[in-house]
């Protein structure tokens, strides 16, 4: 005589399992907080920018995407993780997020809230220049500015030694219908040991900039260009990956007829993780 299949769990039993998981997650978050508290005591000082760890965050985010599966949307996982990291960073060394809302106030606010939550103070500015200047005057704040367009060459403020630098590009996970899809650079001061240099960003000032030069450069790197009256040309923000180099960019500019006036490294960030249209594993 064949045995009957086991009865499915009741609704009450399933809810008890969920309650146990919720309690476990809360306890783990509190445990994480205890470790952060011990970390602060070990440091005994809140060094400027020391709490930001772009390289570690990029590595952790890649691991999260690679192991994610099931019905829970990746958007939710990414946002939860980002808020946890940002909040604990804020606990270690309080900071504010200065956002340039001139491109799109709703989109920039969505990006700030998605990546930093509501605990970290949010300060709106009406230009990228103002946001960057606010960070330069702060002890450890962070700025968000558009990564694809600009009205002014705000990155010139990052050229000096000791100035804030580009430390990240968000969203880190590229996918269709991202809830915070506005491409932004994060700018702050970070310890050299915490940086990730998979993509380097350079401030390049040229004369003789025109459409032909722009077309010659576009296959080699991502570029933001604005008029630069000081050199009767253009100020470029050039993002260079491992597939090329700033020397190749310089050579391409000269070959296309432009004159390179100055080049300065103004930051770096991780290579973005692109999720295919089919999404992560299920």
Automatic annotation (TrEMBL):
InterPro entries: Chorismate_II_sf, CM_dom_sf, CM_II_prokaryot. It holds the Pfam family CM_2. This is chorismate mutase. NCBIfam families: PRK06034.1-3 (NF004697), PRK06034.1-4 (NF004698). It is an enzyme of class 5 (isomerase). Residues 5-96 form the Chorismate mutase domain. It comes from the Bacteria. Its EC number is 5.4.99.5. The lineage of its organism: Bacteria, Pseudomonadati, Pseudomonadota, Alphaproteobacteria, Hyphomicrobiales.
